[in-house]
Every structure is written in structure tokens, then in C-alpha cells.
Amino acid sequence: MSETNHPVHTHHRICPLCEACCGLEIKVQDQKVISIRGHEADVLSRGYICPKAIALKDLHEDPDRLRTPLIKRNGKHEPATWDEAFAEIEKRLPPLMAAHGKHAVAMAVGNPSAHKIGLLTYFGKLARAIGSRNVFSASTLDQMPKQLASGLMFGHWLSTALPDISRTDLLVVIGANPLASNGSMWTVPDFKGKAKALQARGGQLIVIDPRRTETAAVADAHHFIRPGADVFLLAAMVQVLFAENLVNLGRVAPWVQGTEEVRAAVAGFTPEAAASRCGMPADTIRSLARQIASTPKAAVYARIGTCTQLYGTLASWLVDVLNTLTGHLDMEGGMLFAKSAAFASNTMGKPGIGKGVSTGRHHARVSGAPEVYGELPITCMAEEIETPGEGQVRALITVATNPVLSSPDGPRLAKALDSLDFMVSLDIYLNETTRHADVILPGLSPLEDLHYDVAFPQLSWRNHARYSAPVLLRPEGQPEEWQTLLKLTAIVQGQGARQDANLLDDQQFADDANRLFGPHAAAVIAATGSLRGPQRGLDVALRSGPYGDQFGLKPEGLNLKKVMAASDSGGIDLGELQPRIPEMLRTPSGKVELAPPLLLQDLERAAQDLRAPAPDLVIIGRRDVRTNNSWMHNLPTLTKGPFRCTALIHPDDAVRFGVQDGGMATLRNGHRSVQAQVQVSSDMMPGVVSLPHGWGHNLPGAQLRVAAERPGANINALLDDQLRDPLSGNAVLGGVAITMEAA
Ligand SMILES: Nc1nc2c(c(=O)[nH]1)N[C@H]1C(S)=C(S)[C@@H](COP(=O)(O)OP(=O)(O)OC[C@H]3O[C@@H](n4cnc5c(=O)[nH]c(N)nc54)[C@H](O)[C@@H]3O)O[C@H]1N2
Ligand SMILES: Nc1nc2c(c(=O)[nH]1)N[C@H]1C(S)=C(S)[C@@H](COP(=O)(O)OP(=O)(O)OC[C@H]3O[C@@H](n4cnc5c(=O)[nH]c(N)nc54)[C@H](O)[C@@H]3O)O[C@H]1N2
Ligand code: SF4
Ligand SMILES: [Mo]
């Protein structure tokens, strides 16, 4: 393996690429990665990895990955020093804010920031300093419906009920394909192994999906459903529970309110009424409801397929209504809530009660869409840039996001970005989005960065605390990403680009400590010693968290030092999930809100749509284990093998539309069209075509040489940015009617 006799160092590192958060063992010699494998001792993932982990080496070594800032001059991106890049931003951004106000600056943040503590905990500081209402993120292309539904029911945006997979006897998976995605809003490495164990103990896995997916292939049963119809299926199942007297709240009964309101609201959604809308026989709907109700340990889990549709929030809500009414909420073998060691709002403040969540504290200027969790829908971004008037967006800061490929109507957005007065991107590539930026500030390679997951332990199948130190040295002079974000914060606050990031951090930390700890602030500051940046925030979060040492009051408790020391032995295991109701609730009533008025009202909209006929052909998305949204198509290890950006279509539909396996087809949605390679497959539901997202790497000005060789088609060039779930603002990415013909 090693070519020299220089020492080989072994590092343990959490994979930052997807929500499974697997523990890796990485061997390094002379600052070069020589092997990556699963860390057998990891308390969460026990050695499991997928092929993407290996690509961390490719990512680190990718010659296209940016290592120096770029400034655009005369339409060309030229290398610049960090000082020059910050000076350019200081020259252009503050005057623009002074002339046009804070709302003229928009911010957009993407998926990788959820996997980097520096980005996640410092982006908010920059956003607060700017104070613009125009904050957008990939959350409104993804899970916002689930967050809103969970927030309304349980009181906080990240209080998501999770299947207790190691003890359940029936797992129903709706609109998720964890065999490809490795799980989402549910950190569950080696889903397949856990599903097999479930089956081995006599349990069942059932999948509901318009495609017979990789997950469906290992399931005991699979049912096709018409895209976008989950709300009807779920409402009908809930109706069956009431009609057949199957409602049994179990141990959470004293803390649930709204059962009778739900009964009334779903009364019209009989299985017979829902059947054709769902493309499922009424008998199937009825027997699914009975099976869930009659299995003592059962769990229903739904993900992105049920979120990225017109009724995303309703569908997400009804999943947990179903879990609650069948007595599976907060039960061993049913749905449980994680108890995270740090950062979880449902472990802070007074147990059992809280402020709950609300939406609409402000609205988008053009569409009027309500704010949700501090954000506006990312599909409003193009029109906010294009539409003149008071508050028009004139500058944009992007952080780890590629909306030109990942958001509906990418071509419209690309055009809008060109009309901005100024754009800055914190990113690791010159890609389809950052090519529009005036200044690009490179982020670190994950292997150069420390790691602690802020969000995913709140969503994990097992409680734990794991930390990773940087594996490789950071290039001389390159700031960490939190430092870059603080520099930008200083610039917009008028403190200038020359401000020292560490000093700024000290000031901000002192402010935060005073706010959070009042009279104890000085002691907290002293206790964190010489720690800086995200490490300091993490130490405070761990020590004040539910397992923490409370700054010495509980000496056996956790702190950063202990979690760091456990890295090589696989992290600290905090045990299986346990029932947490009522302590974890943060609703104003102190109850599980089964019937939030906002949702009951929206159910009327679904009722109006119950009898809509099926369009001839609708499009949905797809994930492949060797891709990751839009940004890993430049890595040779992952791009090997068959071309993955194909339009999957049922053989009968191929005949109907005159397209052939391997041939090219034109897909149209009104004036929008793309061409894609056809792949005929009886795994598709008739009337549904599936095309993955994140492709279309043939746009001029990007520097992704490997990806450009097989660019693929951009499904988001076909989708309409005006289609949203009105409650959450989430984009509709599936179930959209299109036409298809041979190209
Ligand atoms: N049609 C359709 N569209 C979809 C989806 C779908 O299912 N169908 N899925 C949606 C979902 S779930 C999501 S989450 C979004 C994702 O949407 P985005 O978050 O906008 O897109 P990504 O493709 O994840 O792009 C990540 C960006 O971050 C950069 N990056 C990667 N690593 C780092 C890093 O360490 N530091 C910094 N600073 N930058 C980094 C990459 O170069 C890239 O520009 O896409 C959505 N779009
Ligand atoms: N390999 C890989 N892993 C990833 C990603 C990736 O790009 N590649 N992306 C990551 C991200 S950002 C996320 S958010 C997660 C998402 O993780 P998952 O939610 O598991 O996402 P998908 O694999 O797209 O599975 C969604 C399923 O929903 C189905 N579906 C589509 N429309 C409907 C519908 O209307 N109703 C129902 N019932 N089903 C429908 C699709 O056919 C698909 O099988 O994956 C993450 N993991
Ligand atoms: S499943 Fe793969 S990409 Fe996801 S965390 Fe594990 S190794 Fe990384
Ligand atoms: Mo996502």
C-alpha cells in the first residue's frame, strides 16, 4: 500500500457527504490519503460505508476544486489573494446596502452546510448582521414540509419522530429510497442491514412509491402510488381508523389533543373516494390501515417524495397523525425522538412546554409567500431579483448551494443572477451557480476541517456524540469557513475587511454568553479556555446539554475534551432512543397538537382536488447511491459505470410515446424542454417518468471538467418555479405533468 517507509497515520472521521454520518477510518501518509474504509468501532455506523466515502480522496485531490479566491474581471474569473477578495467585497457590498437597504442583499445556503459545523453555526451570524428578509435555502427544495408539520405538532422544527428500526415489527416507507439515499431526516447508516434484521425477526418492510425502487426490491410488499397523491392515501387510512374503531392512542393519550377534529376533517376521505386519485385499490388502503393499527410495534416513515409536492405539509402531518392514532408515537418499536447531546431545542428551556412554531412573520415582496423558519421559498429568488421596485434584490451571497441546477427553472434563475449588481459565493467549485459570482471564496476540503454534526444527532436512530479532528493540514493562509463568514459579517457591519476573525469571534461569543448565561457568563467564558470558533460553541453546547458536565457540577458528564478523546474508539454511545413525551414537547399547550388549525384549513384544498383525473404522464426524481445532488459528478470514482441521468419509463409508455431504450427523448412542460436519454423499465408505474436531479453540466463558464464529459439533463430546467406547497413554501419537484416524444 505505502510507497515509502514514511509513517502511516490512521484518522477517524465522520463522513460529511450524506445524512447517514458514517464513521470512517482514513489512512494518511505524507499528507496523502492512502485508504478510506468503514470504522468498525463507530458507535453509530459499525463499519458501514457506501461508495461515496471513497470519493472523499478524489474530492480532496480534484484539480478543479478551488484553492484560491477568484475575482471576476471582464467576464473572466482570475485568481486573487484573500486580502484582495475581501477588499473587493468591502468596496462593493456596503455601498450597495447603504444605497438600497438591507433587503437588497439576498442570501442562499445549500445542503453541504448542514454537514459543516462552521457553516451551520456561523451562517446565522452573517444573516442576522445583514438583516435581510431575503434568506433562502435548499430546505424549501426538500424537508420544510416535514419541519413545519413536526413543529406544529411537537413544538420545534427539528423535533422529528423517528422509526425505532431496531425494535419495530412493521416499517412502512413512503416516498423514500434509503437504499440509494442512505436515509434522510433519519440518520440510519446501513438501512439495508437493519431492514434485513427486522425481516429476520419476522417483521415486514412495506414500500409505497411510484417506482419499484432498490428499497422496494428488498421489501415484503411494494405498492405503486400516483405521484402527489400521498395526502389522499394517508387521509383515507386515517379515515379507516375512525370508521373501524381502530383508534388507540396508547401511552401518549394524556398529552394528545385534537383527535375529534381530525375525525371530522378526514370523514370525506374514504378509501373508495381516494382510490383512483392514488392509483391504489380501496381494499389495499383499508388493509394497510388495519395492518398498521393491529401491529403493536409499527412505524410509518415518509420522506422527500411526500414533501416535494403540492400537499407536502399535509402529507407529512398525516404520517404522524397515523402513527399517533395507532398508538405508535413515542413507543418502543414505534416512532421515537432522539435526545441529542448538543444543540437540540427540545432539550433546552422548560421541559414540556414552549413557544411552538409560527410562520408568516414577514412575506416575500413579489409573491407574498410567508416566511417559514426564518426563510422565504428559494423558488422566489429569481422573481425577487427580476422585479423592480422598493426592496428589489441587487446582491446575493451564496454559501454551498447550486440552485441553477438544484432549483426549479434554473435557466430563469441563471439569467436573473447575471442581472445582479454584485454576487459572492463561498463554495469549493466554479460551477453552474458560482460562475455568476463576482467573487468566489473557496471553502475547505472536508478532510481539512474538523467535524461535529449539529443537526443529525437530533435525527439519529441511536443517541451518540462523535467528533472528528481535521485529517489533513489546511493550506497556509486559507481561513476556515467560519472565519470567512465572520469576515463577511464584519464587512457588512462596517467594521472592515481587516478585522481579525478571532477577535470578532471573541466579541460575539461574549455577547452570546451574556445573553444565554447571564450572571454565569464570565464563568462559562473562563471554562472554555483557549477554544475558538465552532469548537468553543460546541463545548458550551455539550456541557450545558442533557448529558453535559454542567461546567463541573456533574463531573461525570460530557464535554468536548471527552468527546474528542473518544474519536478513535468510535465515539460515545448514549444508548437506544427512549420515550420522551411529555418532556420533549415545546408547544404552547404542552400537548401533541394533532389538529393544528393551519393544517385542517389546508385539508379543504386537498378535498377540492380529490377527484382530479390523472394526467397522461407526470415526472418524478430519483437518487443513485453514486451521486450526491449536483456536486459530485466531477469525481472519477463515482462517475465510472453506466450513465445515470436517464429518463426511466414503463415499456407501455415507451410504446405510447414512441421512444426507445437508449434513444433520446424530448421532455416538455409548456415552453420548457430538455432532452434526455431513455431507459425503459417495468419498475416504473405506468404514466410516470423518472429523471434524477443535479445534472446538466454543459453550461458555459463552469470548471467541472469530468462532469462536462457526461453532462446529463437538468430536470429543473423543466420544472416551474411557481409551483409550491403554500404552507411550507416548498417547491413541487414531482407529479408535474409533462409530455414526451422521440428527439
Ligand atoms: N428536481 C429536483 N430537484 C432537487 C431535488 C430533487 O429531488 N429533485 N432535491 C433537492 C434537495 S433534497 C436538495 S438538499 C437540494 C440541494 O441543493 P443545493 O444545496 O443547492 O445543491 P447541491 O447540489 O447540494 O450543491 C452544493 C453546493 O455546495 C458546494 N459545496 C460542496 N461542499 C462544500 C463545502 O464543503 N463548502 C462549501 N463552501 N461549499 C461546498 C458545491 O460545490 C455546490 O455548489 O437539491 C434539491 N433539488
Ligand atoms: N446517493 C445519494 N444520497 C443522497 C442524496 C443524493 O443525491 N444521492 N441526496 C441527499 C439529500 S439532499 C436528501 S434530501 C435525501 C433524500 O432521501 P430520500 O427521501 O430517500 O430520497 P430519494 O432517494 O429521492 O427517494 C424518494 C422516493 O420518493 C419517490 N417519489 C417521488 N414522488 C413521490 C410521490 O409523490 N409519492 C411517493 N410516495 N413517492 C414518491 C421516488 O420515486 C423515490 O423513490 O437523500 C440524501 N442522500
Ligand atoms: S452512506 Fe456513504 S455518503 Fe453517506 S455518510 Fe455513509 S459513507 Fe458517507
Ligand atoms: Mo436534501
TrEMBL record:
The keyword Iron-sulfur applies. PROSITE patterns: 4FE4S_MOW_BIS_MGD. Residues 8-64 form the 4Fe-4S Mo/W bis-MGD-type domain. The keyword Iron applies. InterPro entries: Asp_de-COase-like_dom_sf (IPR009010), MoPterin_dinucl-bd_dom (IPR006657), Mopterin_OxRdtase (IPR006656), Mopterin_OxRdtase_4Fe-4S_dom (IPR006963), Prok_Mopterin_Oxidored (IPR050612). Pfam families: Molybdop_Fe4S4, Molybdopterin, Molydop_binding. SMART domains: Molybdop_Fe4S4. Keywords: Iron, Iron-sulfur, Metal-binding. Belongs to the prokaryotic molybdopterin-containing oxidoreductase family. This is Molybdopterin-dependent oxidoreductase. The lineage of its organism: Bacteria, Pseudomonadati, Pseudomonadota, Betaproteobacteria, Burkholderiales.
